[in-house]
Amino acid sequence: MPAYRPPHISPSEITPKDIYLSRRSFIGAAAAAGFGLAAGGEAWAAPLSAAPGPYKLNEKLTPKEAVTTYNNFYEFGVNKEDPSQNSGAFKPTPWSVKVEGMVGKPKEFGLDEILKMKLEDRTYRMRCVEGWSMVIPWIGFPLSAILDQVEPLGSAKYVAFETVVRPEEMPGQGGLFQPLPWPYIEGLRMDEARHPLTILAVGLYGETLPNQNGAPIRLVVPWKYGFKSIKSIVKIKLVEEQPQTTWKNSNAREYGFYSNVNPAVDHPRWSQATEQRIGEGGFFGTKRVDTLPFNGYANEVASLYSGMDLKANY
Amino acid sequence: MASISAAIPALPRKYHAASIWALYVIGLCPAAWYFYQAATGGLGFNPVKEFEHLIGIWALRLIIATLAITPLRDLFGINWVRYRRALGLLAFYYVLMHFSVYLLLDLQLNFAAVGGDIARRPYITIGFAALLCLIPLAVTSNNWSIRKMGQGWIRLHKLIYLIAIGGAIHYVLAVKSVTSGPFAHIALIGILVAYRLIRRPLLNWKRGRRQPAQLAR
């Protein structure tokens, strides 16, 4: 596994002065969030506080309304507005995530325990395989923080993820013409999973995750197409062989295991050279930008794939 | 079956022309409504794609409607042939709008990208070919051409079956997974095109059944 050196950050950058000066209200809000959760699981969109993370992104954030109403989450329906409209009955609390497989100490993490992890702000670009993108201020923590706790065995080479199955709360999982088999499954190579950019997100825009964005806990792998970032995770399993993944199973010619964002490798049916920024430009004057290799995170992750043919391993 | 046609009151002849013009106006309403919605933020955060897709789906619906005219007459005795030209031209206008939105608002006149798409993306190649095939049909849709071309007109306008199949393939290839919406449209096109294969034998059989009854009279 290649050594990863995070960029050097000066202390002044870690906590902006305005946040530092308002630390008392910040602590107050954090306490309030704690009480809110303790009071009962119903009030889910609770404020969530986090420390600034190590990655800076000087790009305009996608408006919150766009981030929370333009979604692909087929468990709630295949149209972009379906997840926000059909996820009202979904109950993200109580919740737990089983971490098992080739580990020394398998463990089931309760949501309260997950929310006590050292949360960070992580503003990332998100590039969908369909050719659109967003800039989203996530709140989360490195996946490696959880992996460390379960003590992976040396034989564990991959990490497999699984989304919850609840047809009674997720209308897209019931009825005729199911677009995909459930549960939705995804996977990463161990070095990808342990990369500091890879996070488990529990919030966005300063609040706990809305149901349509994968409440209460989801993966975010910013250099891969969005479908790799599996939502509403209930199981994480460390395995020896490359795990099955939903979209590859559904159409292996079009969706690979790696699915790294790559403008040089087109989807068989459409170009991946450019992307449309959602929420900018409107009807007359759509904003199209060039897609970057590894979604702009090449400096951080390109070394993971050195010597690999990225055209063959799409 | 004749009872179905009898159940629908026949429109007096003097209203025929007006009803055709009304169809043009009604037919353009979805496009106008979606355009208004897209321009005022009613189509969500990706209004161009949404508008493009809605117009494309309506183009398919209008093609389905033109294909339905003949079986309606054959099987149910409902004669709406007078509306077929309007439906066909409306379909052409929608396909043209669908392509214009893609060219102007989606790719913003990036002709290199448009050319690349048409050359390399099978679903766009097929869609564009269908648009090109619709042009001669639209141009020869007037009475003068029908009279002038005779049998050639009928042969030329059989192109609509190819266009309909092309439209269905274009739709299947453009979506990530075929759900109930796409399936319904594609199935209708499949059934209506397949009907043309069994139409002759079916009509002969129907005529054959009528014959003895006439003899008995």
Automatic annotation (TrEMBL), chain A:
EC category: oxidoreductase
One Gene Ontology MF term: molybdopterin cofactor binding
InterPro entries membership: MsrP (IPR022867), OxRdtase_Mopterin-bd_dom (IPR000572), OxRdtase_Mopterin-bd_sf (IPR036374), TAT_signal (IPR006311)
This enzyme's EC code(s): 1.8.5.-
Example of a GO biological process term: protein repair
Domain of life, source organism: Bacteria
Ranges where the Oxidoreductase molybdopterin-binding domain occurs: 91-247
Matching SUPFAM superfamilies: Oxidoreductase molybdopterin-binding domain
Annotated positions binding Mo-molybdopterin: N71, Y74, E75, C128, T163, N213, R218, S229, I230, K231
Cofactors (names): Mo-molybdopterin
Reaction catalysis annotation: L-methionyl-[protein] + a quinone + H2O = L-methionyl-(S)-S-oxide-[protein] + a quinol; L-methionyl-[protein] + a quinone + H2O = L-methionyl-(R)-S-oxide-[protein] + a quinol
Post-translational modification remark: Predicted to be exported by the Tat system. The position of the signal peptide cleavage has not been experimentally proven.
Pfam families cross-referenced by the UniProt entry: Oxidored_molyb (PF00174)
Signal peptide range: none
Cofactor note: Binds 1 Mo-molybdopterin (Mo-MPT) cofactor per subunit.
Annotated family: Belongs to the MsrP family.
Function recorded in the entry: Part of the MsrPQ system that repairs oxidized periplasmic proteins containing methionine sulfoxide residues (Met-O), using respiratory chain electrons. Thus protects these proteins from oxidative-stress damage caused by reactive species of oxygen and chlorine generated by the host defense mechanisms. MsrPQ is essential for the maintenance of envelope integrity under bleach stress, rescuing a wide series of structurally unrelated periplasmic proteins from methionine oxidation.
Protein name stated in the entry: Protein-methionine-sulfoxide reductase catalytic subunit MsrP
Organism whose genome encodes this protein: Rhizobium wenxiniae
UniProtKB/TrEMBL annotation, chain B:
Bound cofactor: record note: Binds 1 heme b (iron(II)-protoporphyrin IX) group per subunit.
Predominant place of localization: membrane
GO MF term set: electron transfer activity; FMN binding; heme binding; metal ion binding; oxidoreductase activity, acting on diphenols and related substances as donors
CC terms in the record's Gene Ontology section: plasma membrane
Compartment list: Cell membrane; Membrane
InterPro entries, per the entry: Fe3_Rdtase_TM_dom (IPR013130), MsrQ-like (IPR022837)
Superkingdom in the source lineage: Bacteria
Functional note: Part of the MsrPQ system that repairs oxidized periplasmic proteins containing methionine sulfoxide residues (Met-O), using respiratory chain electrons. Thus protects these proteins from oxidative-stress damage caused by reactive species of oxygen and chlorine generated by the host defense mechanisms. MsrPQ is essential for the maintenance of envelope integrity under bleach stress, rescuing a wide series of structurally unrelated periplasmic proteins from methionine oxidation.
Protein name: Protein-methionine-sulfoxide reductase heme-binding subunit MsrQ
Species the sequence originates in: Rhizobium wenxiniae
Gene from which this protein is expressed: msrQ
